[in-house]
Amino acid sequence: MALRRMPAPIRLRELIRTIRTARTQAEEREMIQKECAAIRSSFREEDNTYRCRNVAKLLYMHMLGYPAHFGQLECLKLIASQKFTDKRIGYLGAMLLLDERQDVHLLMTNCIKNDLNHSTQYVQGLALCTLGCMGSSEMCRDLAGEVEKLLKTSNSYLRKKAALCAVHVIRKVPELMEMFLPATKNLLSEKNHGVLHTSVVLLTEMCERSPDMLAHFRKLVPQLVRILKNLIMSGYSPEHDVSGISDPFLQVRILRLLRILGKGDDDSSEAMNDILAQVATNTETSKNVGNAILYETVLTIMDIKSESGLRVLAINILGRFLLNNDKNIRYVALTSLLKTVQTDHNAVQRHRSTIVDCLKDLDVSIKRRAMELSFALVNGNNIRGMMKELLYFLDSCDPEFKADCASGVFLAAEKYAPSKRWHIDTIMRVLTTAGSYVRDDSVPNLIQLITNSVEMHAYTVQRLYKALLDDISQQPLVQVASWCIGEYGDLLVSGQCEEEEPIQVTEDEVLDVLEGLLVSNLSTPVTRGYALTAIMKLSTRFTSVNRIKKVVSIYGSSIDVELQQRAVEYNALFKKYDHMRPALLERMPIMEKTASNGPTEIVQTNGEAEPSVVEAKHPPPVTQPTNQANDLLDLLGGNDVVPVIQTTVPTKPASAGGELLDLLGDLSLSGGPAPAPATSVPSSQPAFLLDGLTSPPLFNDIAAAGIPPMTAYNKNGLKIDFTFERANPNPNIAVITIHASNSTEADMTDFVFQAAVPKTFQLQLLSPSSNVVPALNQGTVTQVIRVLNPQKQQLRMRIKLTYTHKGSAVQDLAEVNNFPPQSWQ
């Protein structure tokens, strides 16, 4: 019976043509599956005649994204064949279908070894390419000797491939580096550019991986300089010419190696100074090829210990790049200038106008880099001109830039402001332009600036009042204006402004504006709090006290709990404590920045340390709903958990006495105990919870107990550290201060820290210093926890963290059980 032979498979070209006729994805899949089935049948038949053709078709299907793993062994069979055409497809298939994760690749180690010793250079080249592409560490160890032997051959075709293969071997098995050291001696004396190029790549890899090799190859600097000089000075060579430049690829590689060799070494840097100057001045800039060489030259000049004149030349090259029409070149120039601005500030300053022009670029990446570089260039000499340009940019830029730009303007103005009036004008311009985008701490910082600028009070309050009449949508602006009107409303009405023409304003007009803020839909709860406090302050500065009483009493029944609490407390001031109202609502003293670890700060007044709440230093507290705290009730399991009592002391941005809860608690009238505010803490809670409200400020009665700090949480860039202190009269109370820091590149906003403890403890959380954890560890958020532990039991705590990072809400739970014994014993 005659054997039935399979028909000859179609050629690769026909398969490609057939697949391209497919109208739909399903039709293409059907064609591929049909052809794969035929290829599998051919493989099973051990058809040597068409194996090469079938593997080639399989590789094409692999490139289209279809599975082709069943052809791996067939590739090995082709590699073992004696025909060059079979070996070529076999090695190509091995490079595409195999890697070191599959054990199959070890089977071809012997074939590669044989082919490395083959008499035909092209077969040897195939083996070198495959080993350099997908050789595993085991294969590299076995075959490194063969590669090193080919690296010493006189055949330039094999030497260049062997050099690249040696790079792969060194990456896989760094300890084999010394094996190739003798072979590198004569590589740079080769005339063939391909060998030179791959040799420089090999030397670069060895220098980057080993300090010893770096020191050894520094003696090659004169030889590299000579090769580079020959490339620059050589005439037209059609074999290596690219856009009129002789072998730019080799030039770039040599410059990169010179950068590594010259870094931190005076002698090597001195030897390459002249050639770098020649490259920088003789390279044609009309084509992109020349720009690539110039960019590498600039990077090399900046990294080595080059002469000052050479560095200026490099920065001037980057300045010319800024005028290029290609966006990529402009972006590269801005990024490079940003890296060098700290070391060569004056040289970069010469290109300031060009950099500022880049702020008007349509490309957002270029605009961002130009903005960052512009802020880096600001100093005391150019602050006025640069701020003018940056404020114009702030007016017209996209919303994504406004927050960063506003922060940059604030920092630059604080550092280099030529006068307080200019400083105040600049920050008010930012608030009116991009008020909704500024950081949370900008409001208290501006309030502090205004408070400390005594001679500018009348001018500031008049400017802010005008701004308020024009626009009440920018909440930070409205908050600062409300605070200033509450503090300096008498100056506004009296028209005492000397800086500009005073405006005529009546008391009723001022109160109309503030009452409008209370009822406006644009006002946030925090802004309404500022407005109500401002109205209350005006009761000691204006004569319209009855109108103010009526407004305050109306908000005693507000649905906003914090506003209601403020109104109730202010009503108490009008009734029971009216004789103390003028003293409590007097103007804020000058505020000094002092280090603080908790809710109060020590302010130096008249040379004496006097406890005072510096509310303008902190953003308004984060008001947490009750159910948010009670969410933690089941964190420790069972029913032995006490709820967190969040004593969020409302920040009143205008009261001289600050927190009225503190003030009313501190007052002892008629020798009796001070009344506690009705809305503060339920009476069922232990008495110590009222300590923060009825005692002097917290840190007056705290003594350091020598308790070591601890890290309670460290995840996703957020780190929470605990420091411990003991409260003086009651040793059963541990005072824990949390310090939240953020090592990521973006701020963490809406930060809320919550905690729960077993019911044998009592826990009280005070207000946090902020609800924004600044990026790159540029600041910390602090919050104080007071824990009553009468039974001296080991402290356990569950914490809940919620915040927003890069637009995404994050929530995490953690258990803290490793408190130091000194904190609870």
UniProtKB/TrEMBL annotation:
PROSITE patterns: GAE (PS50180). It comes from the Eukaryota. It is a peripheral membrane protein. It is found in: Cytoplasm, Perinuclear region; Cytoplasmic vesicle, Clathrin-coated vesicle membrane; Golgi apparatus; Membrane, Coated pit. Coiled coil: none annotated. One of its GO terms (biological process) is intracellular protein transport. Residues 705-820 form the GAE domain. Its main location: cytoplasm. One of its GO terms (cellular component) is perinuclear region of cytoplasm. Keywords: Coated pit, Cytoplasm, Cytoplasmic vesicle, Golgi apparatus, Membrane, Protein transport, Transport. This is AP-1 complex subunit gamma.
